[in-house]
Amino acid sequence: MLTKRIIPCLDICDGRTVKGTNFLQLRDAGDPVELAMRYCEEGADELVFLDITATTEKRKTLAKLVREIATHINIPFTVGGGINTVEDVHLLLENGADKISVNSAAVKNPSLIDQLSKNFGSQCVVVAIDIKTIEGQWKVVTHGGRHPTPLEATAWAREITSRGAGEILLTSMEHDGTKNGFALGITGEIASLVPIPVIASGGAGTMAHFDAVFREAGADAALAASIFHFREIPIPDLKRYLQELQIPVRL
């Protein structure tokens, strides 16, 4: 079994790390550069930076902040928010991103995934899929969960894989920030359907939730924010816990 990854997420708004519940009621969680440095020291496997209002405010991700974070860490660094073109990706990679994440722009223009994969390689392209249960089906939503789409989650996962996505970041909007556990059913379904890694996101609240999403849902990585930001679960403790349960992690 491949090593499972633990990934803190920095949701950025106005240059600060924030965290809410279901992407609402945001509260300040600290300086993103300081947090990134801390996570690197604590043994995080990767870091995700999401400028969560970049799409709705129709502006670009903060390239300057990306560069500042990149100069202070030595782990893989994924950046998302407001990415619409090949030029946007060039800018972020030049400023230190290792991978980029697209969501709303990919739903609007699926051929963007093909373009990015062709230009930068699949390993660079993470497609974020935000999902909600709508009329009994897991449907894709965009713009921080505010815009529902007719896309069914598993069908969209298949399509983005065929277009060259190298990884899926799957977030259940109902679970996000609740600390009640990941959406195991749909995570497991998508992880078993596609040949690319699936990062589970939304709902982490206990160490057992990580064990469940790795063991029961087969996720390749698990992403969380507030439990790491506010030191509710230290990453070294989480990794030791998982290792004791024979979940392969990098210590």
Topology, element by element:
Elements: E1 5-13, E2 16-21, E3 24-30, H1 32-42, E4 47-51, H2 63-70, E5 77-80, H3 86-94, E6 99-102, H4 104-108, H5 111-120, E7 125-134, E8 137-142, E9 147-152, H6 153-162, E10 167-172, H7 184-193, E11 198-201, H8 207-215, E12 221-224, H9 226-229, H10 235-244
Parallel strand pairs: 1-4, 1-12, 4-5, 5-6, 6-7, 7-10, 10-11, 11-12
Antiparallel strand pairs: 1-2, 2-3, 7-8, 8-9
Helix pairs in contact: 6-7
Number of domains: 1
Instruction: Specify the CATH class.
Output: Alpha Beta
| Series of secondary-structure elements, N-terminal to C-terminal | EEEHEHEHEHHEEEHEHEHEHH
Tell me the name of the CATH homologous superfamily: Aldolase class I
Mean pLDDT: 90
Describe the sheet with the most strands.
8 strands, parallel, barrel
The name of the CATH architecture is Alpha-Beta Barrel
Class inferred from helices and paired strands: alpha/beta
Distance separating the two termini = 16 Å
Radius of gyration: 16 Å
Percent of residues in helices? 25-40%
| CATH topology group | TIM Barrel
User: What is the topology, as strand order, of the major beta sheet?
Assistant: 1-4-5-6-7-10-11-12
By DSSP (H or I, 4+ residues per run), the number of helices equals 10
Count every beta strand, where a strand is a DSSP E run of 2 or more residues: 12
Categorize the overall geometry.
Answer: globular
DSSP strand content: 25-35%
Low-confidence stretches: 21-25
